[in-house]
Amino acid sequence: MLSIVGDILTIHASGVALGELAWVKNSDGTTSLAQVTEIDCERVSLQVFSGGKGLRSDARVSFLGHAAQVLFCDDILGRIFNGVGQPIDGGPELLGQRRVDVGGPSVNPMRRVVPSKMIETQVPMIDIFNCLVESQKIPIFSIAGEPYNELLARIAIQADADVVVFCGLGLIFDEFHFFRDTFENEGVFPRTVMFANRASDPIVERLLAPDLALKVAERFAVEQNKRVLVLMTDMTAFADALKEIGVAMERIPSNRGYMGDLYSQLALRYERACDYRGAGSVTLLAVTTMPGNDVTHPVPDNTGYITEGQFYLHDGMIDPFGSLSRLKQQVIGKVTREDHSAVMNTMIRLYSGARQAEQKQQMAFELSAMDHKLLKFGELFTQRFMRFDVAVPLEQALDLGWKTMAECFEPQELLIREKLLNKYYPAS
User: In whole angstroms, what is the distance from residue 427 CA to residue 115 CA?
Assistant: First the structure.
């Protein structure tokens, strides 16, 4: 053994592969799982999953000859696993079940299908204004204290996906039990798999948990033709774990202490989202908290170059102006109702006018009759569409949009095509 720095163990070894697993046995009989993270000739560095605390210099390392693996069978539905794939819900051990390798490249682009199907979440701010499309990878940009966990849980409950794979990174006690209790109480556990890395767990597991979750999602999509929705929180905790371990391995940091391969590490996970030709799909929705609400922070900044849009969470609501789904044009008006685009664009335009009218009101300017209509619309829009406790199927939400506009404006004030007005504008 050459050195022990934090959770990083360095030894002399040969004939091992990058990512290979090993058992580290201490002289007192305790064992811990480790993974090869760096090879320099015969100098091999391993991340010890249980941490380097208490590890002795005479510990012995036994390599397993394979990389990380995860259980995959129907029995994992309704179960909770930790960051290395071990059950932590008190249920029976899944002995003798099939294991699949976690590593491997992302999907061959030739096997990918152009996204063309929508995942309905019953969250109006998503379904109407920024549709979630199958195979899409999209982050939720937020700050600490915003109810992003409540939003993820609501989406898990309401989304029309066949399987939900949840991955929690650095969850505190309350967050872990919030997700567990919510999934149990709402009856969605039979189609849900949870991978939970808690704040008290070894930080090394935080790096492996997303790979386990995404590999399980991939197998459900490819082998069982399932429409899989992967929910993660929080990718900033994942990036911070990368930084901490990089420092322990004496790597040269880049921007704000993060390693130079941050983009590649994030892309490696996000690019697992895919609509497979002749099979199912994997859609990825991940929370990214922004320290100090700084969108130029390395984690959200790099994430924005990888993903297909973003949802901004401000003041407990999804911001309709900063949020964007770059794939929504693939489904709006094609797999959704013909009036979807008109309702979406008109309501956003009117809400923008309502915000301007609010500013005029605050500065004591005289308000016009249209300003008063816009203010009324803004209040109704916030109550009926932006609140998290609103759960409405898409077609009902579109009808509610027409109703809300009709309560505030005359048909000619909406500037919508007459054909759509005649068909959808409420008669009374």
Answer: 37
Q: From CA 142, how far away is CA 257, in angstroms rounded?
A: 21
List residues bridging with 62 in a β-sheet: 23
Which residue, 66, 65, 97, is CA-closest to 81? Answer: 97
Distance between CA atoms of residues 373 and 182, nearest Å:
39
Q: Where are the beta strands (DSSP E) in 211-361?
A: 227-233, 274-275, 281-289, 309-314, 317-318, 324-325
Question: DSSP labels for 205-220?
Answer: HHHHHHHHHHHHHHHH
**pLDDT surpassing 80 at residue 232:** yes
Sequence-separated contacts (24+) of 340-343 with Cβ below 8 Å:
340/128, 340/398, 342/416, 342/417, 342/420, 343/128, 343/398, 343/401, 343/402
Distance CA 172, CA 186 (A): 21
CA nearest to 306, candidates 269, 254, 253, 261: 269
In sequence order, what are the residues at sequence separation of 6 or more whose Cβ sits closer than 8 angstroms to the Cβ of residue 11? Answer: 1, 2, 44, 46, 61
- The residues, ordered by sequence, that sit 6+ positions from 415 with a Cβ below 8 Å of its Cβ are 346
Q: How many other CB atoms are found less than 10 A from the CB of residue 285?
A: 26
Rounded Cα gap, residues 177 and 211, in angstroms = 22
3-state class (DSSP) for residue 228? strand
pTM, two decimals, is 0.90
Q: Positive or negative, the Cα torsion across 360, 365, 370, 373?
A: positive
235 HSE (CA, 13 A, CB side): 33
Q: Label residue 1 by pLDDT band (50, 70, 90).
A: low
> Residue 201 to residues 29, 84, 168, 169, 198: CA-CA distances in angstroms?
21, 10, 12, 10, 5
Q: What is the mean pLDDT of the chain?
A: 91
Report the percent of the chain where pLDDT is more than 70.
99
